[in-house]
Amino acid sequence: MAIFRKGIKIGGYDVRIGLPRDRSYDRIDKDVRLQGKANPNTSINRFRGYTQAAGGYAKPSRFIMTMQLPRGANDRGDVARDTKNIRDMDNTMSQQIAFHCSDIQLPGRTVETVSQRINGPERNFATGLNFAEVTAEFYCDKFMRERHYFETWQNLIVNKRNYELNYYDEYTAPIEIHQLGDFDEEPGSSFTDNGVKSELKNAVYACKLIEAYPSTIAAQPLSYGAVNQVHKVSITFQYRYWHNIIDIDEVERDDTFMSQQTGVVTPDTKGMGPFGIFRHLPSELRRAGNSLVNQAKNRLPVGKVFGGKVFPPYL
Q1: Are 220 and 231 contacting, i.e. CB atoms less than 8 angstroms apart?
Q2: CB within 8 Å of 93: residues ≥ 6 apart
Q3: I want to staple 124 with a disulfide (CB 3.0 to 4.6 A). Which of 113, 130, 149, 286 is the partner?
Q4: 79-83, 180-184, 267-271: range with lowest mean pLDDT
Q5: Phi, psi (5° rounding) for residue 251?
Q6: Sign of CA dihedral 286, 249, 310, 298
Q7: Are 165 and 74 contacting, i.e. CB atoms less than 8 angstroms apart?
Q8: What is the DSSP string of 104-151?
Q9: In the predicted model, what is the mean pLDDT of residues 124-133?
Q10: Half-sphere exposure of 297 (CA within 13 A, CB side)
Q11: Do the Cβ atoms of 53 and 284 come closer than 8 Å?
Q12: Confidence of residue 285 (pLDDT cuts 50, 70, 90)
């Protein structure tokens, strides 16, 4: 832009005069100081290269947990009522429980050892695995349904009428904790089929707690001073063991193109993406190509007509 510009109209023509700006920076690309190239072998550039190739870092705020409530017992009169109650709550509250989980840990595990000295320094020999308990916190709605939910589950553990213990298989159930990747969500995604499957398709890590049950419902403090705070209930889960349920090789190969129906990678969906055209590319190019196709599916006019499918019913 000019520093000063003035124009007048003479006949059908515009006549303008002005003082141009300084042009000393017009050919800045010729400056020899800008022609040097960064050394890719320095520590900081290698770090940046690894970070870019990895696509960023996992974020602890990207997670979701799901649980399957225990089967209970319909053939025992003293447990059947609690069984019905917990199944009714499962049908009406499973998604609310999943999304109201505000804090949880990916469980740890420790190799148990025993020390033995034969000659010289002692050796620690592995004797087994130890799995630490998991604590989760849940937001409570105005009816405190979340606390009712876990109290009902505990009623399957200890009979609230006679305080007798029920059978182990009647009150244990699996719990899954999913770490979600930091990928762009598809516009218009919805949560269906009682399992938040549209969220699980972006899972990059997940572990399953086997034979879990809520052992502790923590006390919830009440205070006149907590005017603008939200009630949260803390639940401690015991379980037998946990295992990883997502194969890292499949996650990297498919790069979030998991099955849209089940939310997990299956043998017939490995590396598929859109027609599998990106399956043989490096991960960085495959991720960029997948992102471009996802945007086109929902922004092109034909994609809007056919609900995000550019070439229905295939893509």
Answers
A1: yes
A2: 145, 149
A3: 113
A4: 267-271
A5: -65, -45
A6: negative
A7: no
A8: --PPPEEEEEEEE-SSSS-EEEEEEEEE--EEEEEE--TT-HHHHHHH
A9: 91
A10: 20
A11: yes
A12: low
The tokens describing 302, both together, are 């034909």
The residue behind tokens 């042009």 is 23
φ, ψ at 203 (rounded to 5°): -70, 135
Instruction: Give the mean pLDDT of 247-254.
Output: 58
Which top CATH class is 63-254?
mainly beta
Angle separating helix axes 43-54 and 283-299, nearest 10 degrees: 50
* Residues whose CB is less than 8 angstroms from the CB of residue 104 and which lie 6 or more positions away in sequence, other chains included: 63, 65, 134, 135, 136, 137, 177
Burial of 212: CB neighbours in 10 Å, binned 0-12, 13-18, 19+: buried
Can the peptide bond before residue 313 be classed as cis, meaning omega within 30 degrees of 0?
yes
> What's the pLDDT at 19?
67
pLDDT tier at 256, thresholds 50, 70, 90: very low
pLDDT band (50, 70, 90) for residue 67: confident
Q: Where are the domains of the chain?
A: 63-254, 273-315
- Mean pLDDT within 85-103: 87
235 touches 217 (CB < 8 A)? yes
